[in-house]
Structure formats: C-alpha cells, structure tokens
C-alpha cells in the first residue's frame, strides 16, 4: 500500500539523497530482520524494533528485566538473523578484565608474546548480569563499547564491525552487585525492558507453537547488509523544526527541578541518530515528531539522574520524561519549503 | 501508512528549496518592520482621538493626550506581550493608564479641585460628564478620562491582536473607537474625514507590513534556537521589499483619497443632521438656590443705589442675567439644567440677527445673589473656571459657588432685531416650544379678554408688539408697588384696554407680557437683566440695583428669542428691545387677518428647542436595541460567512501542500470546536487519533484521516516532497467528510451553532 515519498536534494552532509526505491528496499530489509527475530521473541514487536534500531544506529542495548523473560533469547536471535558471530559473557564477581578483553601470553615455541582475544571480539556480545562483576571489569567492557578498541599491554586491537553489546541487568537481586554508574549508563543507546508476555503469547510459548529457537534461525542478512542499512539511515533528513524540538526537550530536562543531571549532547545526538533509523525502518526518508516522542523514553530515561528528593518520593525518570513530553509543544507543520 | 503519492520534483527547479524560506522564517523578531507595524497601530488607534478633538474646547490638547495614550498603550502592550501572555499584558498595562488619568487630573483638575475621590469619580462618571457638558466639551479630567481609557483599551487590544498575527482584527478596536468618537461628536464637530483617512492609511500600512511580517519561530517553548540555513536571497528580498513599500504607499494614498475626497462627495447632497447624544441625557441639577431673580426686582426698585456690578466695556452694554421659562401661576421659574462648560460656549441656534460682538469684563459685587453670571447677549466665550451653561435659555451659572466676588471676561453676540425684518416671521409649531405656550389654570378672565382684543390677529411679531405697546402705554412705572408676579398680582394690575391702569415694576410688566403673549398663542418667557449702568470712568460702568430690569421675550422662527420692552416710563430698559414699535405696526395694517395666524411648521426643530424636550429614554432604548439587534444580525450572517470564507481559502489553496495544511487546520479547529482541545504536545498522528476518538467507532471516515497525518508530516518535515493534486484532493475530501460526521454527532445545540461560533476565527493557526 505504501508508496514511500521520495526525497529530494541532499541533506547537510552532502550525501546523495535517498530515493524512493532505496527507502522502500531498506524498509523491507529491516522488516525482514524484524520478522525473523519475532519468530523467537513472541509478542514483543516494539521491543524487537527498538533493539534493531539500536543495532543499526551503532548503539548498545541495556536490557533491564527480571530473569526468564527472554533477554538472552532476544540478543541471540538478533545475532543469528544478522549472520554475525556472537559471544556471551556471564558476569560474576570474580571475573577479571582480562577475561573480557583477552590476554597476551608468551609463546614458548616462537618466543613471542601473542594476543589471545577475549569474548569481546565478536559482532554481538551478550553481557549477562553485568552488574554482578566488579567495577573494574565493567569498566573494561564499557571502554570497548565506546572506543571500539581493546588496549592490552599498550597494543590497540580493534573489535569487528558492527559491534553490538547487549548487556542485561537484573533489577531485582541487588545483593552483592555493583550498580552501573550513571556516567556509564550513557554509553548505552537504549535501555529496554521486555516485561512479561501477554497471556496469548505466553500460551503460545508454552505450547511451543510457532516458536523457533535462535539456533534454528537462518541469517537474513550479513554484516555488510547491516552496515548498508546503517549508512542509509544516516542520510535520513531531519527538519530544523525537529532539531529544535529535540533541543527544547533536552533543555527542559536540564531545567527540571526534580532532575539532578539533565541530558547531555551525547544524549541528543543519540536520539536524532535513533530517530533517523526508526524513520527509515518505517519507509520514511524524513524524521517526524512521532519518532522523537516514541524514542525519547527508551533512549533518554536511563541517562537522567533524579534528585534524591524525587527518588525518595517514588518518581522515576520515565515518568518525568513523559511529563516533559506532554508539556513541550510539538513542532507543527509550517510551509517553508517549495 | 497512508497512501500518499508524491511526484518527483524537477531537481534543477529547486536546488535548495528551503534555504530562502527558512532563512526568512527564522529571522528573529526585531528591526524595522515590527516598529513600522507598531507605528501604524498607534496611528490607527489615534484616529479616534483625531475625530473626537473638534468637539472639545481645546482640540490640540485632546489630540496630544489621546495620541500619547495610543502610543504608550501600544508600546507597553507589545513589550509586555512579548514576555507574558495576553491577559497579563492587558492587565499589566492598566496601572500605566490609571497613572495617565492621575496625571491628567493633576494637569486639569475638576472644577472642585484635585483629590483622589475626584479621580475615582471621574473614572466612574466620565461618560455622563461628557454628555452633560455643554459643547464644545471643556478639557478636564472628567471629560478626558473616558476617551483616554477607551483609547488605551483600543490600543492594547489592537496590539494584542497584532501580536497574535491577526491584522484585520487588530484594526477592529480602532474602527470601533472612531465610530464611538463620531457618535459622541454628534452635530458638534465637522465630519471626521481626516480621521477616517488616517485610519485608512494606517490600515493599508498595517496590511502591507503584515504581508511581509516576520514569522515567529514555531513553538515558543523554553529554547529559542536559531538554526539559520545558509543561503542568500537577501537581494531578492530587498527588491521585493521595495516593491511592497511602494505598493503599500500607493494603497495608503488611494485609501486616504477615497475617504477624504470621495466620502464628502458621496454624502454632499444629503441633508441630514446627526443626532446629538447629549440630548438624551438630562444634566444634573445642582442644588438650586431657592432664589427667584424676579423677586429681587421690587426690593431693588425700592433701593436703587446698591452697587451690583463693575463692567469694563467699550460702550454701554445691556447684560442678561437669568431667563425664566416656566410659569406656575404664582411664579416664574428659572432654568436649572446647566452643563459644565469650558471657555468656549456653543453658538446660539438660530444666530441672533445683525449681531455685533460685545467683549466685556465684569466684576461681580458682594450684593448680587445667586449663582447666575450676567453676560452680554448670547455668550460665546468666558474665561471663568467651573461654569455651567444652559443652551436653552442662554444662562451662565457658576457651578462651584455663588457668583458674588467673581471677575471674568466674557464675549457675547448681541443681536439687533428690526421690526421690518420680522414682520413676516412665524412661530414654529414645534412641540418642543409647547412649554412656552402653557398657561396654568386659574388665569384671570381679563387676561384672555385683553389678549383677544389687542392681539387676536396679525403676524406674530405685530401681535407681540401690540401687547408690549398696550402695557407701556396703559400703565405707569411705580417702584412702590409690592413684589409678586402671579395671577393674583396680574389681576390687580390689569385693566381692560382703553382704561387707565395702575402702576407696577418691571417684574409685573414682564410677567404680564409673557402671560398675555401665551394667551395669544405666542411662545414667551421672562428675562431678568441689567441696564448698562453709570459711567464711572473711561470704558468703566457701575451697575446699581436700580438698573435691574425684567423684560419679555417671544420666540420667532429664524430670529430666536426676540426681546420686547414692556416697562413703561422712567426706566430705560432694553437696549436690544425692538425699536419703533409703531413703525412696525404701521407697515402691517394693510394686511388684516381675521383669525390668529396658525403656527406653521416651516422650520425644522432647532437644537435650542430640541434640548428642551427632556430626556428621550425611549429613543435611547430603541437605539440601543437597534444596535444590539443589528450586531446580532451581523454576527448571524457575518460569522458564518467569515468561517466559510476561511474554510474555502484553506481547502482551495492553489498549492497541494497548502491544501493539506489547510485541511489540517480545519481538522484541529473542528476537534477543538467539538470540545476536545488538541494539546500543544500533540503530533500529527496523536491529533488524528484524538480526532478519530471523537467519532463513534461505527463512523467510517475516521480511519481515512491517517493519510492526512502522513501528508501533513511530509509537508511539514520532509526535505522536499510534492504531494500530487490527486492526493491533496482526496485528503481534503476525507477531511470534509470527517468534519461533517463530527458535526452530525454533536448535541443539537452545538450542531446548530457550529458555524455561528466566532471563536475559531480567533484561534491561532498552529
């Protein structure tokens, strides 16, 4: 039904404009991956889309949820569909940084030091229960997430591209854990929560109907395909009015009485990047205000730090953000072009 | 996802299509255009003051005050509304306006002096005080407060409308102000063509400026981000600005010519006299002193040497003091409806014939009782503060205390009535003069007999002269006669014609003349005044009590109140009395008429007579009801017409994108009209969801709106993307369908008033 609107002359980056055919093809690609993932993660279409959006926006995902709702399944399904190699690290209190990044060992035969890459050298890394590891080990992973390089004994080793870390965190059992510092939560593009399935989906899981395990999935794309989609997303147009809207929202968090720390520039950049991907996924060569509103909570909520009064008062960042969204005027269409 | 098809634009046609538009759209407010707009607003608002000024005694002062009020009001409101909302801006300016009223009160205090109570009283009663002032209206805080506050309010309202980008509505307060000023002027001031021209020019300028007006950055949230797109267009903009300025100047010139030249030409043949709103209101009666000027005459006749006045004049001048128009059977009553007046006094209607101007300076001695001030003839200018003027009788009174001890200069028109000119003059049959024909019951039989015998026939002037001559010749002046001028005194005085009568003072003779004239059907009254007095130096005269005199007056069409010298003998009354009554009578006897001349309606009501008709509450109520009904009718026709016109303009715009935006605005208005205001944070999709929720689930048109939301996003946020005319037509049709269903689903009252509601005209387009 959809004939995607074409896009005309280029954006600020000078990249060629997306054509209608390109947009339609990319949207179809996205939908194919999403459909494949949905075969293993039933009933969570929106979370699947957000996770894929993060993947295509070069961002990392923090899954925060109780055990047993499919966090690891989602990560593995994404890896399988993308045809990418994936590793899983189970974080424990005694895990050492070198267990994540790899070690340099002396090769007796050749009398040289050689680097043994750790599990972080994979396209998709699932960091399970990241809050159980010591801050030092967490820091090792977080550094890789940002830098996309592992530095061991003074030598930089690049991780493959695309590189997606899906960290899970259990918010229920807090004993003996090291909560991720707020500053480092900023490294995650989105924080998602799967939540419990609705009854129909859970029934289907119990019966085993239509349910595929991640191992059964065929790759529907490859890392090159992922890179192509990500490159196309960067060419999606954002109107100045949308930029202003994002800035207005960010400013509102900075001025908010109940927030100790507002949104950083990294946060606004992250949102516009994710919005471009989301627009492309919907077959649109331009971002609309709805994209911003839909992505604001998953992309921004975990980056906000409440004042202690607000936290004690039982407020949470997502609620505050929703209030800010409701109070901020959305950009209205005004005829400026043509 | 909606089924919006777009066609590919020609790439060469618009290399950077948004560059110029966005550059212009995002330029922050400031610079010359808003300033020009504000100036035009001030000019439009000041037009009311320009129209009102000629009806005031000091037009220049009024123009200055109201012009300043307009300028400050517009400036303050624009500055405030840039920082706060409309209501705080409107309220925030009022202290400044009140400060202006206080300043005016200090500058021109009311006649009783400056005090807080007087300022508060001026705020409440200004309108009534303007209407009860004699025209031209004197300039003081009582008469300035209403125009000042009205101008302020109009300026503030205009500034708010302008701030809300409603140019046409912004002109409405100025138009209303001008209309109000013209209505208040009535016949007092000349037609307000210059003011209309000023308003027309300001309107043209305002429209020209608003055409290129800088659009404010959308939203209005906490952050004002300036993301100016690179790119030129300044040269082209400058060129088009010049063209616009020239066009606007031409338009303004045309508007001014149309109003100031074509307007007068159009109505030049139309002999209508505007209604005077002052006639609808009875002036407040000051606590009238229980004094009757007539009753002083016998006392003064007995003691003729009390000094009353010192007059400086170039020549001996007779002075009028009080006119008494109502006869109760026992006494004559003075007029009591004094309007507060400034230094200039209204011209008498009709003007006294062969008038000469008399300028005198009068110092009132301590012996003169009452509040009335003696004046020569019909007063036109007086330099005494706090005076009241009764245009009906031409009497001047001090409103703030007794006349004794005052000194003032006064200029009056002194008429010279010639019998030959008045031979054919008639008596108007106007009902306004009926009160001057009324004789209360109980008149001595002799009165009607004498009137029938000596004044039964002939022209009015001849009859009045016959009565005066009869009184002068039949009786003698006798200062010893006790006072009194009622029927009882007249019965003692009068004798049938042919016999020798007794004596009396001018009190009795004037009363007898007026009563006899009324018995003969002539409108008459009694006037008390003073003779020129004794010369005590060069150009200086002293008026003594013995100079006081009463005389009678009869009203004749075209000549006004004609005085008749009626006192026989010694005294020298009436310098302005009709001279040579015999010659006047001699010129007429060839024209015998068997019956008294029936009064003929050969003259329209004069305002002097019209004012006497008392309050016309019925007329006023009818006028108010008419205005209300007219406005209601206008609203009944005008609001739907304007709404339909705007809907048409939105949905039939030439560009498909504009059509989609038009449909979008119609949708938002419709949803809001249905009682579900769209939150500011709503996006297109959310608004559509809200709109769909307003319809019952069975309604069919809701789901088709999704295409509208998508198209709106394309128009608003895509880099480019031209909707096809087909898609736009489909969207417009869907939106119309939705709105029809929405209206059909409303309650009956809302459905019936859907198009009558004027609020959407004031809602700001998103």
Automatic annotation (TrEMBL), chain B:
Stretches assigned to the Transglutaminase-like domain: 498-568
InterPro entries: Bact_TGase-like, Papain-like_cys_pep_sf, TgpA_N, Transglutaminase-like
UniProt entry keywords in alphabetical sequence: Membrane, Transmembrane, Transmembrane helix
Biased composition (Low complexity): 8-22
Residue numbers spanned by region Disordered: 1-29, 566-612
One Pfam family from the record: TgpA_N
Transmembrane helix as UniProt keyword: yes
Transmembrane intervals: 35-54, 60-80, 87-107, 144-162, 169-186, 192-209, 245-270, 617-642
PANTHER family, per database record: PROTEIN-GLUTAMINE GAMMA-GLUTAMYLTRANSFERASE
UniProt name for this protein: Transglutaminase
